[in-house]
Design brief:
Number of domains of chain A: 2
Largest sheet of chain A: 10 strands, mixed
CATH architecture of the largest domain in chain A: 3-Layer(aba) Sandwich
Oligomer: homodimer
Bound molecules: 3-isopropylmalic acid
Structural class of chain A: alpha/beta
CATH class of the largest domain in chain A: Alpha Beta
GO molecular function (chains A, B): isocitrate dehydrogenase (NAD+) activity; isocitrate dehydrogenase (NADP+) activity; magnesium ion binding; NAD binding
Helix content of chain A: 25-40%
Catalytic activity (chains A, B): D-threo-isocitrate + NADP(+) = 2-oxoglutarate + CO2 + NADPH
CATH superfamily of the largest domain in chain A: Isopropylmalate Dehydrogenase
Shape of chain A: globular
Order of helices and strands of chain A: EHEHHEHEEEEHEHEHEHEEHHH
CATH topology of the largest domain in chain A: Isopropylmalate Dehydrogenase
EC number (chains A, B): 1.1.1.42
Subunit structure (chains A, B): Homodimer.
Cofactor (chains A, B): Mn(2+); Mg(2+)
């Protein structure tokens, strides 16, 4: 008997743009599936900025995150101009979310893609690299940004990638870096990879220079399994891989720290379609599925995942995937209802 | 009457790995086509390193380059380990070759590709960014690399991209940078783009954050025309785009400076297949075609280009494209002979 004692407090943020719509759809599915969660809502993003808090997040929000240690986050917007730092990056760094885990899977033939056999996971370093946020003006005409790579940072992420592979039945870890040019920084990443791989002899390993690796990813994604790479390369290749599956709107992600974990869609807040009720909630929903596994409600996670797969297989998709749709494209909430109807079904 | 007076002195380097083979094939075609060039050979790369010159290039070589101002270069290898800097980068920076121009074109159905309608040119900044080569050790565990972006550097490359578009009948220039994170450095690149585009009102312009731009490139390359981007992004997306056309072995490139210009394949020296006579000379040959246009022998350039297209259309390809081949794949020199046989023919 799983009672209230099992219930896990989580923090949620409804975000900006399409955020509130896809969060509503996601929560409806979670509730219908019987997820044992007690959500605590925080305000972050645009409204907070506009209220005069230039950090975009209030102290109480940090308190909630540090208390629940589990965060389901809708996309947020950083207002342009001014001295705003990306709030996404601030959250990842403040909470020490060092591993950004981004599965990219094809759902062909149900979602149109040129790459029907993709099934890979990008493990992106999430705190260092050019995201360190150290940038300065030398003269009017000369600007600098610092790329920072540390040994502990490399060790944590590379170890995470191999542990992930081991615990998820993955067979190969590919490292990508540009150490023919950045011999010290990217060179360190590669070196640490070569050290740590020795501790996982059952897992195949390989390294590509990022340009060649990205080219192979864009043409033969099915040859990859787990990819581990520094922050900025990970940012670029995870958008590439997600889009190649048919839509960036289908990819959820986990941002994992020592203590705290955050779950989000990899797409942005899409202000152009906000408020229309047409956004695809799948990215956030699949992030929530990852969250449920994290809080040890794997049974509910697979119930939702199966229902979602069945929904897609039944040709039910939102507007951006209209080309693959059976009949008219579904709105965000109708899509959620379609998933809910299929809870308990297998794909 | 075009006599010897027309002949242009150029510098050539046979390079490492497959370099000598593809250079031989390329020169044979140039000669047969009547290119009015007087090649002067320099030694650079592996042999020079191994002879104890840690720069990989001797003073006489620089003299030749500064004299002829035109360089046809086969791929070279930088030995691994030690303090070797990339000789490719040294040459680009020493000679002030600020624009790396990389056309990526599909030759479907003659070369198999999932993207039959690609026809784009990447104009990659070639001197700045993380390629500035400023890297240092802070502690045993902390390393830094400096990303350097200057206004004159941005202005030169952005202007080059728009001039290129104007002079080559291209309709759109797309800028890609990551200025939501690097507001000063990549922000400057974007800002300069927004300034200079106003001077080319007849050319459409747009900007993408590099992650989204690269994702669009990997899924809908046919929507791009000219892309201008900082050095490292250009490195990554040009390998992606070239490989998406069917083979990175088909792409030539021009490295353009104020005074000097260098022409090379975008692929590397492929030591694994060196000496076998099977490498595809097309990348270097198409680079040579770009060189001929540069030295105002456009008639010869299109004669070779047409013969090369006809060769490809006749199903004649080298080993790496064997899947598209009619009969057995051709060796490097046989491929060159096939091109030569077709000089004067149209595709
Ligand atoms: C919004 C932006 C700061 C972010 C990043 O660059 O990491 C996004 O692109 C992502 O991949 O989550
Ligand atoms: C070999 C390497 C230094 C070079 C680069 O990074 O520019 C190569 O990848 C290229 O694109 O020409």
């Amino acid at each position: 008997d799983r009672g209230a004692a099992d219930t896990v407090a989580i923090t949620i943020a409804h975000g900006d743009g399409i955020g509130p719509e896809i969060m509503e759809a996601t929560l409806k599915v979670l509730q219908a599936a019987g997820a044992r969660i007690a959500p605590e809502t925080i305000e972050i993003g645009e409204k907070v900025y506009l209220s005069g808090n230039s950090a975009g997040i209030a102290p109480e929000a940090w308190d909630s995150l540090r208390k629940t240690q589990v965060f389901l986050k809708a996309p947020i917007t950083t207002p342009s101009g001014g001295g705003y730092k990306s709030l996404n990056v601030t959250i990842r760094k403040t909470l020490g979310l060092y591993a950004n885990v981004r599965p990219c899977v094809s759902y062909a033939p149900f979602v149109a893609t040129k790459h029907p056999k993709m099934d890979l996971v990008i493990v992106r370093e999430n705190e260092e690299d050019l995201y360190a946020g150290i940038e300065h003006r030398q003269t009017d005409e000369v600007f600098q940004c610092l790329k920072l790579i540390t040994r502990p940072g490399c060790e944590k992420i590379v170890r995470y990638a191999f542990e992930y592979a081991r615990n998820n039945g993955r067979k190969k870890v590919t490292c990508m870096s540009k150490d023919n040019i950045m011999k010290m920084t990217d060179g360190l990443f590669h070196k640490v990879f070569d050290e740590i791989k020795l501790q996982y002899p059952e897992i195949e390993s390989e390294h590509f220079i990022i340009d060649i690796g990205a080219a192979k990813l864009a043409t033969r994604p099915e040859r990859f399994d787990v990819i581990v790479t520094p922050n900025l390369y990970g940012d670029i290749i995870s958008d590439i891989a997600a889009e190649m599956t048919g839509s960036v709107g289908l990819a959820g992600s986990a941002n994992i720290g020592e203590h705290i974990a955050m779950f989000e869609a990899i797409h942005g807040s899409a202000p152009d379609i906000a408020g229309k009720g047409i956004a695809n909630p799948s990215g956030l929903l699949l992030a929530a599925v990852m969250m449920l596994v994290h809080i040890r409600q794997a049974d509910i996670a697979s119930k939702i995942h199966n229902a979602w797969l069945k929904t897609i297989e039944d040709g039910i998709v939102t507007a951006e995937l209209a080309a693959s749709a059976v009949g008219r494209p579904f709105g965000s909430m109708d899509f959620a209802d379609a998933v809910i109807e299929r809870l308990g079904q297998l794909p």
